[in-house]
What we know:
Layout lengths: L1 H12 L8 E7 L10 E5 L5 E6 L5 E4 L5 E8 L5 E8 L6 E2 L3 E3 L12 E2 L4 E3 L4 E4 L4 H5 L2 H5 L5 E3 L5 E3 L5 E5 L21 E7 L13 E7 L6 E11 L3 E12 L2 E25 L4 E26 L4 E25 L5 E27 L5 E26 L4 E28 L3 E18 L2 E4 L4 E4 L5 E20 L2 E20 L3 E19 L4 E12 L3 H4 L10 E3 L8 E13 L3 E22 L5 E25 L2 E18 L2 E20 L3 E10 L2 E2 L3 E3 L2 E12 L4 E8 L7 E7 L2 E9 L3 E13 L20
Parallel strand pairs: 1-7, 1-8, 14-16, 32-35
Antiparallel strand pairs: 1-4, 2-3, 2-5, 5-6, 6-9, 10-11, 11-15, 12-13, 15-16, 17-18, 17-45, 18-19, 19-20, 19-44, 20-21, 21-22, 22-23, 23-24, 24-25, 24-26, 25-28, 26-27, 28-29, 29-30, 30-31, 31-33, 33-34, 34-35, 35-36, 36-37, 37-38, 38-41, 39-40, 40-43, 41-42, 42-45, 43-44
Amino acid sequence: MQRFLFLCFLTLLFTSVRAQGVKGTLTDATSGEPLSFANVSIYDSNQKLIKGTSSDLDGRYEIRDLAAGTYRLEASFLGYAAQSQQITLTDDKEPMELPAIALSEGGNDLEEITVTAERAVMELGLDRKVFNVEKSIAAAGGNGEDLLREIPSITVDLEGNVSLRGSEGVRFLINGKPSALTQQEGFLQTLTASNIERIEVLTNPGAQFDPEGTAGLVNIVLKQKREDGFNATVNLNAGTGNKFDGSVDLNWRKGRFNSTLGVNGRYDERYFRGFREQSATFADTSYSRYFTFDGLRQSQRQGFNLGTEYELSKRGSLALSGSYRWGEGESTNLRTTDFFNDAGELERTSFRNEAEPQTDNNYEVRMDYQTTFAKPGRSLSASLQMSESSREEVENYEEFIFSDTGLDLGGNRQNSPSINGSKQYLGQIDYSQQIGEDFKLEAGWRSTLQRLDNVADFNVFDEDLGAFYKVDSNSNRFLYDEDVHAVYATFGGKVDKVTFSGGLRAEQVYTTSELVEPTGELFTNNYFKVYPSVFLGYSLSENSTLQASYSRRVNRPRDRDLNPFVDRGDPLNLRTGNPFLLPEIINSYELNVQQRLGRGTFTGGVYYRAKSDLLTRVTETLPGGVQIGTRANLDSGRDYGVELIGTFRPTKKLDLTASANGYRTELDGTLEEGTVQADGFKFDARLQGSYELPWDVKSQFTYYYRSPGVTAQGQFNGFQGLDLGFRKPILDDLGAITLRVTDVFNQRKFGYSTEIDGLVTSSEFQRESRILYVGFQYSLRQVKGKPKRSQSGDRGDDGGTDF
């Protein structure tokens, strides 16, 4: 059998075709199914792109009007290894039918000889941009957060919060599927970067996807092991300042079973420092304050995941998977505050010691079923998922106050223990049917039930009693229930040079918030909304593609936004929620063009987002100069933006990717202090390059810049940073050693300024970011047969995997 395949391959490789064109079929190497919308390109002897096309729903392609000569034909598709073959054309009139070209998922099978091309750094799909990150240095020794810092238009701030095109409303999928674990703090750091194959960015997701999130979706596609036999991958990393992480991933496939086991652990110590300066000018008084912060965050996290997939038949499969993560940590901080009178003279100084230990536990279990039918072009999938998480923490505060002469003015001790628990249940069904040769219909249902129970007490130490007592008025128990029921349908296809898809999603949402303690108040907000989406693609030429899209999205307030409990961690800067928040609605429009060049690509686009009931952070000044921050709805907001992405390979050893995103933000609304009208321009840019050094060492750099910008009540400062990395293969390419330096010039600092009700504030904070990492990776692979394609759709690029 192997000899037969080898001879077939050689026949394909050296086929001599006597025609003025070529045509043929693209198929999946393991299932034999046709590959729709795959790319077919023709290059001349100088490797210059001559013509190109894409396959139809039956996997058929045809390229005409080629002059006689020798060419290289390349076939590629997202998530598959590209294949190339040499063809020779003469003066015959009719295109020659080539034998079917079978593409394999991922890289090459070690038991076959194939001619492959390295996948592009960025690929443009109908509804997404795909970034192949397997070659990244961060993928060899970092985590998911490190990889996202390399993706154009994505920003990761000092606290690990992710923004897309300047908006923090980003929703994450894993292999195209929702996971409650993606909502947990620090989940990106639990993902080993070397296990991530690609990152897909959907700024205008279709109706088959959950519409939640102002900015769009980020789909993290993990590598899948599909060979019979045993595979193992080990990753070990150490960083300066006591930072260690490691993971072991095992995969075993035999017969109809494919089982995986992953174990990971992480220990991290990271300092944070900063200052805040405030000056107050009121009708009856004026003063100023200066705060400094000097803290350390320690965290330790462990986790494992276990899964198995069973092929029930040639058409259907059943998969069971689960994960469990637990961890503990503690933040300590010395907050020093100097108080000055209106003459600028020091009056007193406060020293506040803060310690916040916490523990986390969460698990998730999932069952997936998928089947095709006897009639080709039809498939059905169903999923059930349950997850539960809990966090226990205690905020401890001890304050000492001294006069300007050093006189002890007393102090206080407080603590605030809390328990936050959540449960989530999800069920969904997706159906897909091909209609004729060129069209496709998809439909589905999904329900998500969420239950949250948060308890927080506030205790003050009584010196006379020698014990803490609970302050009932400052303690609370908050319950939040959210049920979302949705149905959707999409229809798409290809007509000549036009590719299109349109869909409609209808959702009924039931929400209930209850402040059990101390008031017993009940808040409900039930609403029904529809979310349309439209995508159009037009092939301007063999090298140019034009795309237009529209989608409606929603940003639902989360429990921390709704909970009216007042966080008193900073006694002069309080935080609370707003139970009367409404969901924010976003109408997003986008127009993109992609141009293939001789040694690279250019992608340019413009976008517009219109927002109603805009969710934003606001701050109010209370008597005594105390500020309290919360969330509120503004009437409307608008973003106008331009995004440019270019890839260029000037030499075989050097790859460059540059991106820039600039947009104008406009905000309108009414707050306590009156009418709000704010506008400003924001800009961010990224330059990334990789170069192959001598001794088989690969180097990589990433430079990032974000400009200052506006908020509803002030502005934030800009920042920049440079990362460097090196990778050296060892042990016959089964292992590698990596060296990385993040934020080489120690420039990642976050700052903002506001002026609210006579109180002017400016601040700057920095979390430790200049770190040297050394890593080791090793892979063991024992292949026993040919790769098999999963029936559960692990490519993650199918719109039906989540809605």
